[in-house]
Amino acid sequence: MKILTLILLLLAPAAHADRVRMRPFEKGNRSIGLKLGPASPSEPRFRGTVRTGVIANVQGLYYMADWIALGGELTSSRFFKKSFMSPAGLSTLPASTDYNSEASATSLAAVIRVNFFESSSWTPYVLGGAGFHRFEQTVNAVVVGANPGETETLSVVGNHTGIVVTAGGGFEFFWVRDSSFSLEARYHEYKLNEDFLYNAQSLSFMFGFHYWWGRNW
């Protein structure tokens, strides 16, 4: 028993020395990350034309201070096909017996992030930003023909390049020295032109992995 106690006492300093120190969120740090998750349409008329889809986000950040980071991100979203009975999407649709629709959006935005904790290995945070998007929605319409029982399928594609605004928040944790993971909720609004009856809005939940470098600590 005495021998076992002596061995444990000798090993304790070595185990402490080998412990990985978590990188804190500090001024001068840089990170690049990939986030993925589901994206749901949130504007009522947009939600009536497409189903929940997927979102992918690549983000780079530079910490101007321990709690404030500036950066940019590239985001791609796809909303899956949904069938509906009335034209809730594009104003140029013909009279129809049935519709189905899907949409996609790609955006490039500048973002600012604010951490709640300084010099910590984990933190809640909020962020927001704005930039430019390319949005496209395809609507297929089964149109009633001139003769009884006659139908024809037509496709209408609406696309627009405009402003995107985004906001959200989440939690980020270091799990090894230079790598972290995040859980984030995010809102996007894609400003559309008069061909659409709405501005497309979505709410997404993303899980992310991030790599860190920069500050020598």
Q: What would you note in describing this structure?
A:
The structure is a single chain. With 217 residues, the protein is mainly beta. It is built from two helices and eight strands; from the N terminus they run αβαβββββββ. An eight-stranded antiparallel β-barrel has the order 1-2-3-4-5-6-7-8. It starts with a helix and ends with a strand. Residues 6-18 have low confidence and may be disordered.
Structural class: mainly beta
Strand order of the largest sheet: 1-2-3-4-5-6-7-8
Give the number of helices. 2
Cα end-to-end separation: 41 Å
As a percent range, the share of strand residues is over 45%
Oligomer category: single chain
For the sheet with most strands, the description reads: 8 strands, antiparallel, barrel
Strand count = 8
Mean pLDDT, all residues: 86
Helix content: under 10%
Order of helices and strands: HEHEEEEEEE
Low-confidence stretches: 6-18
- The gross shape turns out to be elongated
Identify the notable features of this structure and list them briefly.
mainly beta; 8-stranded antiparallel beta barrel; 8 strands
Which helices and strands occur, and which strands form pairs?
Elements: H1 2-17, E1 30-41, H2 44-47, E2 53-63, E3 68-84, E4 98-115, E5 122-144, E6 151-176, E7 179-190, E8 200-213
Antiparallel strand pairs: 1-2, 1-8, 2-3, 3-4, 4-5, 5-6, 6-7, 7-8
